[in-house]
């Protein structure tokens, strides 16, 4: 301090009346304020960056999990043997759940898992709808499989074969209850009268079917294919039964029936039935040629199960437990790949039969040592790559069916890429263009020459795609410039540009093209 009371920094002595804030440590306050400001600025920048990073890369329209996705149908006794008895089982499917995930399917559909006197030879002659064949495992194994699939974002669907286990469908208690439950009630509170309309719900009939549905839902099953309905002579109450079954399943679980049921039920009952069905299974015979396929698909798309959202969707099947395997005697494995890629381009929910992704051939019994199971040779045991640490069963055990002679594992990445292309492309997984006042088709089925089938898929503000499938045995050069100009070939490592004025396609081949706009 000098003689005038000033310090070296020009500080002035404070009097009694000087405000207290004058003596605060302002340099420290300025530093803290600057630090808080910069920290807040950095935090806000970090939040913005995090929001940008977590934004979805695409903004595609959403659908229910069973709409437009791909189902994978498995005959459990032929997929994977976990206990080396020569017969596949549920725990074997759990062991292969990573394979199913890598394939890209959204749901696994199991054919009959129920006990029969001589499973799997007589798997259709079931003795219960709520138990599991001891050859396959236990009901707890079903729950374990469901948990394994759910962990990998996949669902579990069961075939529920009613015939010949049940001889008749029986009456439904919901026939007279629906109208009663749709009545209106009045509630008075605080002097205000409010009207509440109850949601129409059918009374659930207590029978073997409803008990089975309720039973399996407890073990994590996400849907059911009700099989054999078309075999019943009397279907008078079928629409009420459907209402009951769908009410048990709820909105998030899928209910599937065969197209054959619709052919047996007449209007107006058919329209009432379809209100409670999610998927209708339609079988395509790919061996009848492109002309038959064109007519068949177009007829389905113009029928009462035509694409609509909301509404019933089509489940497309080209092979399965009740039909011959695509790859069999005299059929090239390329044909299976051709048909499968075409199937994956259709609007609806494709259903792939196990092994079709590798062109698995039907079991071949050259020495006629398995004539008693000849009717089951299309259910050939699954093959796995030779470098796989685990085959269908161990080397010391014979599988329950003769081994399939051929499979082509080069097809597997192609089918997997097609499934992933479908999952990310609304042009393919959506079955229609839904606007406020109308539903427009987004599929065109065309035929060029006798053996060429063209499936074109489109969606507003998205890429359009076309599959060109040659179901014949000759290599063809086509001029399709009247339909398309150019595009990029998909599903291969290199994206080759092609022009449709000189389009070449080999025998038993499907080419998937992203069309130029």
TrEMBL record:
<dbReference type="InterPro" id="IPR017853">
    <property type="entry name" value="GH"/>
</dbReference>
<feature type="transmembrane region" description="Helical">
    <location>
        <begin position="34"/>
        <end position="55"/>
    </location>
</feature>
<protein>
    <submittedName>
        <fullName>Neutral and basic amino acid transport protein rBAT isoform X2</fullName>
    </submittedName>
</protein>
<keyword id="KW-0732">Signal</keyword>
<feature type="domain" description="Glycosyl hydrolase family 13 catalytic">
    <location>
        <begin position="73"/>
        <end position="422"/>
    </location>
</feature>
<dbReference type="InterPro" id="IPR006047">
    <property type="entry name" value="GH13_cat_dom"/>
</dbReference>
<keyword id="KW-0472">Membrane</keyword>
<keyword id="KW-0812">Transmembrane</keyword>
<keyword id="KW-1133">Transmembrane helix</keyword>
<dbReference type="Pfam" id="PF00128">
    <property type="entry name" value="Alpha-amylase"/>
</dbReference>
